[in-house]
Design brief:
By secondary structure, this protein is mainly beta. Helices cover 15% and strands 39% of the residues. The protein has a 5-stranded antiparallel β-sheet. Strands 7-6-10 form a 3-stranded antiparallel β-sheet, with no helix packed on it. A two-stranded antiparallel sheet has the order 3-4. The termini are far apart.
Length: 157
C-alpha cells in the first residue's frame, strides 16, 4: 500500500516552556496555509486551536507541548519563516512594549500596529490578535503567548 506524503519545510524555533529553560526545537510547515495565501508559518501552527503542538528535537524525539504552557517562541530565520507577517506589516506603525509574563520574566520589543483605521493602538492589536502576538526585538521575532502575559507596558503611553 502506498502512503500519501505531503512535503513540509523544517523551521527552527527557540521555545520557552517553564519550568525548563528555553530550548531549540523545530516545526514542519506545510506548503499551503489554510488562513492566507502561500506557505504555512510558525504563527499559523501556534495560533491553531489544537491543545498540543508537536515540537521536534534534532535527535528525532517529538515533544507534544501544551500550547497554553508555552511562554514564547523565537522564530529562526524570521524573514523567511514568517514571510506573510513581514509582508502585511510593511509600512505599519509600531510601538515599544515591555511585556511581563506570569513566570516573572519579561521581554522588551516592538509591536506592529496593524488593523483598520482608528483601531491601531496596542490595546486594539492585542485584543484582536490570536493567542500568539508577533513582537520584534532588533533582528529577532518572538511569538508571545498572550495567555501567559501578566501585563504590557506601552512606551510613551
Amino acid at each position: 500500500m502506498r502512503q500519501f506524503h505531503v512535503p513540509k519545510e523544517r523551521a527552527s524555533v527557540f521555545v520557552e516552556i517553564p519550568p525548563r529553560p528555553p530550548e531549540t526545537r523545530f516545526v514542519f510547515l506545510a506548503p499551503h496555509a489554510q488562513g492566507h495565501r502561500g506557505a504555512e508559518m510558525p504563527s499559523d501552527i501556534f495560533n491553531a486551536p489544537d491543545t498540543f503542538i508537536p515540537l521536534f528535537r534534532d535527535d528525532g524525539d517529538t515533544v507534544l507541548a501544551r500550547r497554553d504552557a508555552i511562554t514564547w517562541i523565537m522564530v529562526g530565520d524570521p524573514q523567511r519563516a514568517e514571510w506573510y507577517y513581514y509582508e502585511t506589516r510593511a509600512g505599519a506603525g509600531e510601538a515599544g512594549v515591555h511585556i511581563e509574563f506570569d513566570t516573572g520574566t519579561h521581554l522588551e520589543g516592538r509591536v506592529a500596529l496593524l488593523g483598520p483605521e482608528g483601531s491601531r493602538r496596542v490595546i486594539d492589536v492585542v485584543n484582536r490578535n490570536g493567542d500568539f502576538l508577533h513582537v520584534q526585538r532588533d533582528g529577532e521575532l518572538f511569538l508571545v503567548n498572550l495567555r501567559r502575559v501578566a501585563s504590557i507596558t506601552i512606551a510613551g503611553e
